[in-house]
Amino acid sequence: MKMLEVKNLNVELGGVKVLDDINFDVEKGEVLAIIGPNGAGKTILLKSLIGLIPFRGEVRWLKGVKTGYVPQRMDIETDVPLTVKEFFRLRGKLATDEKIKEALDFVQLDESILRAGLGEISIGQRQRVLVAWAVVGSPDVLLFDEPTADIDIAGQESIYKMLYHLQKNLGLTVILVSHDLNVVYRHTNTVLCLNRKNLCFGAPDKVLSTEQLLALYGGENAFFHHKHD
Asked: What is the structure's pLDDT at 221?
């Protein structure tokens, strides 16, 4: 069952074409990774999918599908006068005490964090709070824009484990932007190579050849996947 079909998607910003004839689809329950160099249009694509940026073409979600979006980062001053619990309350009636507790359990955060200031918690905790914020709305699809940006290596592994725990236990469909090819190979069903245009689309082991990665990232900056026994 297709959760999402994208056909001939084009985006222009300030008279410049930033996405050119993008085509792909996402099956229910799968994990799709969007990869590409900086400036490739990955964040713009995510925002187009949920209607935050105008586009031409078709973005067709399965009828009744609810989406949750987790941005790359949320820059918060340490003295912001808002607790984590008050941040959840901004979701309105969706954020019941029961729903908040359930969402925190899913992202492996203790309820005690609700009393902390939003600007006082670590970047990794803040990212988990953003995921929990999205989960409170009971989405069918979660979209993540580089969920481990600004997080150290150990924290990155923890975040990805949490995401796939969510995907497995809630039966979610996941669309994520990632620069980590190890994550793409280990955790995703499908990969979309993007550099303003579709450069590849399919199972990572089938489409991510050395030649394709060179074409996507450029010679000296190419990423290589090393398989381990």
From this structure: 46
Longest Cα pair distance anywhere in the chain, in angstroms?
Answer: 52
The two tokens of residue 65 are: 């599908």
Rounded Cα distance between 10 and 17, Å, is 7
Do 176 and 163 contact (CB within 8 A), yes or no?
yes
Question: Would you kindly state where each structural domain of the chain is located, as residue ranges?
Answer: 1-65+175-222
* Fold category of 1-65+175-222 in CATH: Rossmann fold (3.40.50)
Report pLDDT digits (tens) over 156-167: 777 777 777 788
Dist. CA 70–CA 176, nearest whole Å: 9
Residues 6+ apart with CB under 8 A from 14: none
Query: Cα-flanking dihedrals φ and ψ of residue 33, to 5°?
Result: -105, 135
Residue 131 pLDDT exceeds 80: yes
Q: Which residue has the tokens 């005490």?
A: 97
Q: Is 164 helix (H, G, I), strand (E, B) or coil?
A: helix
pLDDT exceeds cutoff 50 at 47: yes
